[in-house]
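Quick question, first post here. What does this chain look like in 3D?
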Amino acid sequence: MKKKLLELLLCCSLGVAAQQSQLMVISDPHVLAPSLAGDGPSSANLVASETKLVAESPAIVDVLLDSARRVRPAALLIAGDLTYNGERASHEWLADRLKSLRADGVPTFVVPGNHDVRNPHAVGGRTVTSDEFAAIYGDCGYVAAIERDTASLSYVAPLSPGVTLLAIDSNRYDENRSEAWGDSKTVYRNAGRVKPATRRWAAAQIAEARSRGDRVVVMMHHHLLEHIDGQARLLPNYIVEDRDKVAEALAGADIVLTGHLHITDAVELPVGQRSTVDGQPLMDVATGSATTWPFPYRVIEIGRREGARHGQPFTTTLLADNPDCQWSETGRRQLAKGVDVLAAMGSKKVWSRMGGMLQRAAPLLSLAGVKAEDLPSNADGLKSLVLQYMREPLTEALFNVTRGGEDPQVGRANMEAISDNVLNMLADMVGDGGAELIGGWLLERVEPLMRSALLDLNDVGTDRERRTEDLVSR
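> Answer (accepted):
Ran it through. Tokens below.
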């Protein structure tokens, strides 16, 4: 009886907005409260060290919330990483802004991300506990919840008549440690997992919602499905642990909204792994960081209606597409810094596997006219070489991926530029013959990754990934 009463009261409180059956979704705003801009790292240092616009994050969030006032969705959903590094002041600043939005008729629901709770790197040193997070965002889902999970910050709440939200806490903040808290060392976990108890609880909540005839929207921070081929192997911290078990627990949901990797993409569960109760595929819809170029948000049509489970087409709006967006050029420059991060990660992985082999082969290569000084001597050397030849094509590719990677012409141009520069780099190192041999072997192995990231066409129309109506507003 209590559940039904709470659901009825909340649905009534949504008023006219609930009838619009629209959900607005943002993720990873990474807000740093203005009061903390000079506390700890300076604003200049923050700007210099991030791909996201930390110093500008409050202003960008204000623009996004004004967009929500214009869209007037049934609810605004924020899929985690609400704050820069879990600062209490940042949470309180955002909660105050969301209170104003609710007063204007737009209910808001949040779920924590890996940055938000018990973060040892909080600017100013004051972070929040899980209980404090739920208290600060009490009016953003926790007070109105029909059910709360006892093992995490997960909850269930009605969004509009016939639509239920299942907010899943996929974080490992309980494993974080800090020397400032008296621990022997500082540990920060950004990987994701859903506890077995939470999986069982979630499955029961979905079954109950479906028994009422409701459609179920799941929101969690970490990806459920691979959005790029090899993501689970190459970027394991960006996809939830035991994803097959989590997908099984979430079978019966209509859509899963995620964030974390700062890309805008949608993917369906492969046919052989589908375990939904009615044969429909589970879909993971990822939204990029709200304060990282091109500053995306989504609007999804979903409500009590017959037909496709995923509702009407969802649209993606990029603030940077607006010629009046004052952060567009700054945002592009900041995002370009991500190429250095990618080059460092890739070089470290490659060197750990092939560095010793290259050094052992140096005498043999010298017989072919290859100079030892032209070969990298460590992972940093490989990174410098990669950036020397690859910075421009990788930067353009990163821009394409962040936008959604769904323009085939641009994606093919990115792939061609990357391939050409790989061959040029190798040719300068080991000659044309060696470049053809090594480059062909290398490109053959990375082509599936590049196609899935840059074209989003590798599996479109197949059972692994079908093109969704993922539209960019112009």
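Residues 408-455 form the longest helix (48 residues).
The longest strand covers residues 155-160.
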